[in-house]
Amino acid sequence: MTQSNSTAPQPPVTETDPIETDPQKASESLLHLHKMSTTAGLGSQDYAEVNVTAVVAVLFGLASLLAIASPILLVFPIVGVGLSLIALRQVRRSNGTQTGAGLAILGLILSGAITAVIFSYQGVQALHRRADEQAIAALCTQYGQYIDQRKFAEAYDLFDADFQNRLGKQTFINQLSAMQNHAPLVPPVDAVYWNGITPAFQQDDEGVQRAGAVIIVHYKAYDGEQPRLEAHFKKVGDGPWLIDNIPEQFPEPRKAGAPPQG
Q1: Where are the domains of the chain?
Q2: pTM
Q3: Is the pLDDT of residue 39 over 60?
Q4: Phi, psi of 215, deg, nearest 5
Q5: What top-level class would CATH report for the domain 131-245?
Q6: How far is residue 114's CA from residue 220's CA, in Å, rounded to a whole number?
């Protein structure tokens, strides 16, 4: 009987993990896991919260357009700029857990740009108004000088077409001549000037500007209080400012059937 030289297969030798057999190494491994970053595992597929302040900043940026209607509403762009800056800081400090930097920048651009445009426009308007006031003041002074020099025809040219259509030149000259020749009962006028209070400006859809102001009529050798008269001015397009009327000096004719004034 022959003996077989084959040997039985031996079971595979497995190497024991030293961590499983060494408790000290196992604890050190756990310590390393504990020290991992708190943001570990936050990848591009993970959800990041949209910063609420950035969304509100965009809404305030859009609402800034309302400030064009009234300077009081400038609070919207001012608050919008502040919210945008706060949102940017919050997103930067969130360690990637928040998004919305683009929204915050959009809100900052909207609020900042609209604020800059409004202030620039108001600055230009203020310069124009200052120029208008200076033109009206010069017009009043010129009117007073013409009266004092008895250049009544030249004074008539300082009035607009509506006034001249209503009151002829000769009638105008006669009225001023009578006013200057009432001495000693009424001293002659030697100056007329604007009282310095900002006129009430209005502009219609056709580009016609109107202004209501108060002028001071100065009488020669008169120490009492100088009379203040209401005066109306008008400017058509890019033309010069002209006197539209001085009602107390040149009252408009009363319409038929209208009750008497005063």
Answers
A1: 131-245
A2: 0.63
A3: no
A4: -110, 155
A5: alpha beta
A6: 54
